[in-house]
Each structure stands twice: as C-alpha cells, then as structure tokens.
TrEMBL record:
One of its GO terms (molecular function) is arsenate reductase (glutaredoxin) activity. The keyword Oxidoreductase applies. It comes from the Bacteria. Its EC number is 1.20.4.1. This is Arsenate reductase (Glutaredoxin). It comes from Flavobacterium rivulicola.
C-alpha cells in the first residue's frame, strides 16, 4: 500500500492523487498540513527519499524566504523548521515501504509504481 503526503490546495498534489486513483493503486492519504510529520518521521522520510533536508524544502515559499533564507542552518534545524511549518515540505510525496519519491513528475511516479 502506498501513502501520499497530500496538500489538497496544490495542483501537482491533486494531479498525483488522480494518477494514483487512475492507476488503481491502493493508497492512503495524509494531509500533512493538518497532520504534520514529526521530526523523527521527517528523518525517516529523508532516508527513504535519499535527500538532504534542504532538498526537501520549498525554498521559494514566502515563509522560508522571510524566516530562513540566507541563514546558516544545520540539517537538524532544517528538519525542525519543516516539522514546525509543514508548508515548507515539498509535495506531493509518495511512500511505499522503504522508498519514497516526490511525485511532481508523473513519469517518475509511473516508474515508481
């Protein structure tokens, strides 16, 4: 079973969700803005994605620009920022067991399925 970290207000996230539905994939939806990830869940997710914390941040997000851009932050501080402000997390993310991808590109999502 897949899990999608979903923001219903995001077009890319809605497209990813529709793709999963059309593919008849079994999945559960987690609206990560209403049900944020903990620091430990983010650390586990980063391992599954094989990304550094900064690579998961939406760096063009106003909140990031106004509060964090240009500052020297440790990985731990970046993860804490994403836990405190989940809007900073890139989306959508599709998780299956020990692997995950950012599902913005449907071609990559198709290969992942």
């Amino acid at each position: 079973m897949f899990q999608i970290l979903h923001n219903p207000r995001c077009g890319k996230s809605r497209n990813c969700l529709a793709f999963l539905e059309n593919a008849k994939a079994e999945f559960e939806i987690r609206n990560y803005l209403q049900n944020p990830l903990s620091v430990s869940e983010l650390q586990e997710l980063l391992t599954k994605l094989n990304l550094k914390p900064i690579e998961l941040v939406r760096q063009k997000e106003t909140l990031w620009i106004e509060n964090f851009k240009g500052k020297t932050l440790t990985d731990k501080q970046i993860i804490k920022a994403m836990a405190d402000f989940p809007i900073l997390i890139e989306r959508p993310i599709v998780i299956k067991e020990n692997k995950a991808i950012i599902g913005r590109e449907l071609e990559k999502l198709e290969k992942f399925l």
